[in-house]
Each structure stands twice: as C-alpha cells, then as structure tokens.
C-alpha cells in the first residue's frame, strides 16, 4: 500500500538542491504531474524531519517555483538508520536510476569522502558502480566549478587536481593550465616539466614548444 504525505516543499530536506532556471523548473513540473516521467517524489521521516529519497530534479524545480505549496510525496519506510547508508542509497539512485546534475553527484561523494571518511573504492563497491565513475568526482573543492564540470565530463580529474595542488605553478597561471589540460594540450609529463619552471606563463609554455612535446 502506497502512503502519500502532503508537505510544503520548503519543509523537505534534500542533500543537494540545484538552482535551475524558472522556465526549466516549470517544464519539469509539467512533465512530472503529467506522468511523463517514471521518477517519483518520495520522502522518509528521520527524527521528525522529512528527507528526500527520490525525484531529485523535480524537487529542484519545485524548490524554485513552488516552495510554499503543498505537494504529495510518497512516504517510504525508514529502512536506513545510519546517515552514511542513507547517503549511499541516495547517491546510487542519483547515479543509476535517475538523471541528476554533476553537482549533485559531486556534493554527495564529497560528503562521503570527507564527512564519513569513506574511500573511493568503498563508495564504488557499495553502490555497484566502477571505481572510475567515483574517482572522476574526487576533485579538490577550491577548483572553480567551470573546470570541475569539464574535468568530470572529460575524465581529466587527476590532471586538474595535479595542477591545483602544484606549489610551483603560480596561482595566477593555474586557470591557463586548466584550459590546456581540458583542451588536450597538456599531459602529466608536460605538467611536470612546466612545474619545474615555476615562473612560466601559459604563453611561454605554449610558444616554447612544450605543449607539442
């Protein structure tokens, strides 16, 4: 038997809420309530609060344009007591069963890595995905989001992290090295060579022929 709970959107807790444009939000809401999606808005009650368990993109939309309205959510039983288990279940759904933005997956993986001290291999095993699928989201928090998103999409996480962590490359030049890496014009070996010349700018790197090494 399915139990529904009518809740104000603003009273539901979500691990991550994406800031979507109003037009996108309205289109998602129309798709949801016209049954054009198999995803279901569901919540579980944890210590008196309702936590989102599914329907993530539609919840983002509701949060944008209908925050103070009552919406029907499927109430699921509280089968996961441990917070890390609940987070793993949400991540698994967001990676396998539902379409979610890169930031959703990034934020949840970061919480598991740093708040719950899990490692990449453990997360991958627990949600039945490849280690590589988790590793690509293991980007340093201080890297600008634009480069994070590109690195994840292109599988350049390790190289972008190496640029960010380099103590030899001046901070003011790192964005240029990110661009080179994401354009396929910089390898790990080339980065090692460039890092030995800590005062080199992007233009020196490119014109000196190292980029074509």
Topology:
Layout: E1 4-8, E2 12-13, H1 22-33, E3 42-46, E4 49-54, H2 56-65, E5 70-75, H3 83-97, H4 102-114, H5 120-127, H6 131-135, H7 145-154, H8 157-165, H9 174-182, H10 188-195, H11 202-207
Helix pairs in contact: 1-2, 3-4, 8-9
Structural overview:
- The termini are far apart.
- Strands 1-5-3-4-2 form a 5-stranded mixed β-sheet, with helices on one face.
- α3 (83-97) runs antiparallel to α4 (102-114) and α8 packs antiparallel against α9 (174-182).
- The radius of gyration is 21 Å and the shape is elongated.
- The protein is built from 11 helices and 5 strands.
- By secondary structure, it is of the alpha/beta class.
- The mean pLDDT is 90.
- A hairpin with a 2-residue loop joins β3 and β4 (49-54).
- Among the domains are: 1-79, Alpha-Beta Complex (Conserved hypothetical protein from pyrococcus furiosus pfu- 392566-001, ParB domain), CATH 3.90.1530.10; 145-212.
Q: Please indicate the percent range of residues in DSSP E strands (runs of 2 or more).
A: 5-15%
* Strands side by side in the biggest sheet: 1-5-3-4-2
**Relative helix content:** 40-55%
Based on secondary structure, the structural category is: alpha/beta
User: Distance between the terminal alpha carbons, to the nearest Å?
Assistant: 65 Å
Give, in order, the helices and strands: EEHEEHEHHHHHHHHH
Largest sheet: 5 strands, mixed
Tell me the number of helical segments per DSSP (H or I, 4 or more residues long): 11
Number of E-type strands = 5
Kindly identify the CATH topology of one domain: Conserved hypothetical protein from pyrococcus furiosus pfu- 392566-001, ParB domain
CATH class of one domain: Alpha Beta
pLDDT averaged residue by residue: 90
- In CATH, the architecture of one domain is Alpha-Beta Complex
Gyration radius over CA: 21 Å
Low-pLDDT runs of 5+ residues are none
CATH superfamily of one domain: Conserved hypothetical protein from pyrococcus furiosus pfu- 392566-001, ParB domain
Envelope shape: elongated
